[in-house]
Specification:
Largest sheet: 4 strands, mixed
Order of helices and strands: HEHHEEEEHEEHHE
Shape: elongated
Number of strands: 8
Structural class: alpha/beta
Helix content: 25-40%
Radius of gyration: 19 Å
Distance between the termini: 15 Å
């Protein structure tokens, strides 16, 4: 990892969104190069606990988990209900860009809600699934006329933190985001050394 913040490392190691980490500001501003070698070929799932151990050893990272009531968006059904096609085959949910649209396949509403608070959506609050819909679905969100326009729109949205571009496409699917409060698990950083232990 090159020129990364400790906050970024923690976020990846624990599989969290940024809003789930409560930490001092320097964890974002200080930058580090971290080089570590696994004993063999390992998956991302295996690398994460290894990075957690490295952070505890080198940075003396100490933390605990709390649940806090925070502002959230609830993904809920529109007045006329959802307009989604049930997935005919089982498999892992996927998303791809096609002709200015985001195409979702075999996507549960739980997975979709989680994606809404991550890139490329990155809405400004956690999103929780309150649709009550079970199973997986195929659906398409038309966001722009072509892929190039979509790329520029998503980049602008990220800079301006404006998620309004998703309102109409969600409504076309019979879904909407409703501002609420809800319990969110937070990782609280109790201690971390600015200067890590040498190799």
């Amino acid at each position: 990892m090159r020129n990364v913040s400790l906050r970024t490392c923690i976020r990846w190691a624990y599989g969290l969104k940024d809003f789930q980490i409560s930490a001092p500001g320097w964890l974002e501003s200080e930058r580090y190069d971290i080089v570590a070698k696994a004993p063999g070929v390992v998956s991302n799932g295996q690398l994460k606990p290894m990075l957690r151990a490295l952070l505890a050893e080198r940075f003396k990272l100490a933390l605990h988990r709390e649940t806090k009531e925070l502002p959230v968006y609830a993904l809920v059904l529109g007045r006329k209900g959802a307009k989604l096609e049930a997935a005919k085959t089982e498999g892992e949910g996927s998303m791809r860009v096609a002709n200015g649209s985001l195409e979702f396949r075999s996507m549960s509403m739980l997975e979709f809600a989680e994606r809404l608070s991550a890139r490329p959506f990155g809405v400004d609050r956690p999103v929780v699934n309150r649709t009550g819909l079970q199973g997986a679905f195929n659906f398409t969100m038309k966001l722009a006329g072509n892929d190039e326009d979509l790329k520029h729109s998503l980049e602008r949205r990220e800079i301006e933190h404006d998620s309004s571009m998703f309102t109409a496409p969600l409504q076309e699917l019979g879904l909407r985001l409703e501002a609420q409060k809800g319990p969110i698990e937070i990782l609280v950083i109790d201690h971390a050394d600015r200067v890590p232990v040498e190799n």
